[in-house]
Amino acid sequence: MSRSPAAPSGTGQQRTSNGLDQFFASIRDRENLSLIDLAGASQANISFITEMGHRLYADDLLRSLDDAFGPAEGMLERQADPQRIDEFVNQGFDFPECSVDGALVWDTLQFLGPELLQALVDRLYHIMRPDAHLLAIFHGNEKARTVPIYHYRINNARTVTIIPRGERAPAQVFNNRLIEKVFQQWGAIKFYVTRDNLREVMVRR
Fold first, then answer.
1. What percent of the chain has pLDDT over 90?
2. Comparing C-alpha atoms, which of 101, 95, 123 is closest to residue 24?
3. pLDDT in tens, 112-168
4. What domains does the chain contain, in order, with CATH numbers?
5. How far apart are CA 59 and CA 124, in angstroms?
6. N or C: less crowded end of the chain, CB within 10 Å?
7. What angle do CA 199, 204, 205 make, to 5 degrees?
8. Is the peptide bond before 148 cis (omega within 30 degrees of 0)?
9. Each residue of 12-24: b (16+ CB within 10 Å) or e?
């Protein structure tokens, strides 16, 4: 995975995140870990993670998705192509087995079609260490035709600033049952219901 340029700064809304709090609690008092951030590189996140003594590999998954499967018309059909899926997963997530200690995937998974989503989640399972944690966010309005997407700027272990970056149509209806099915080979999964219609999901490898 190549590190993408830091996204432009902007104004946003600061919010408390129980999921983020639990994510950092899972790596407390540990050093020299390898973490993944899939919402695009930001100087705030890079600085926060590296000051904790860890390495951060950052990529804008949605931008990579558009580059590999765009344009929007017909994207879901192309996301079901096994050859395209293999190329996307192998090029973007070429990490050794059990080498990643945590993943911040934020709101990116809800824009992946069924086949690509499962292939990516399976690859994350393969590259993450046992007991490593993954934080994902899904919009709670299951009937929405489009949902906001954000850049995420970590302020501290419990708060993050979300900066709007437009809207996008979810690829599937992400209810709790589907999310549990996608992560069924993982260990524990925990849901955090928030007041701002975002559903935070913490999954343990």
1. 85
2. 101
3. 999 999 999 999 999 999 999 999 999 988 888 999 999 999 999 999 999 999 999
4. 13-204 (3.40.50.150)
5. 14
6. N
7. 135
8. no
9. beebebebbbbbb
**Structure confidence by residue, pLDDT tens digits, 156-167:** 999 999 999 999
Q: Please, what sign has the CA dihedral across residues 89, 112, 138, 50?
A: positive
Give the tokens for residue 27. Answer: 């790596």
- CA distances to 66, 75, 152 from 165, rounded to whole Å, are 14, 20, 10
Tell me the two tokens of residue 44.
């705030």
Which value, in Å, is the radius of gyration of the alpha carbons in the chain?
A: 16
Sheet holding 159-168, edge to edge: 13-16, 159-168, 147-154
To which residue do tokens 């919009």 refer? 139
Is the confidence at residue 8, as pLDDT, over 70? no
Q: Which structure tokens are listed for 179?
A: 């999310």
For 20, which DSSP code?
A: H
**Is 186 in contact with 125 (CB distance < 8 Å)?**
yes
Note the pTM of the prediction, 2 decimals. Answer: 0.91
CA distance 100 to 65: 21
Three-class SS state of 38: coil
Question: Would residue 7 be called left, alpha or beta, if left means φ above 0 and alpha means ψ between -120 and 50 degrees?
Answer: beta
Cβ atoms of 109 and 122 closer than 8 Å: no
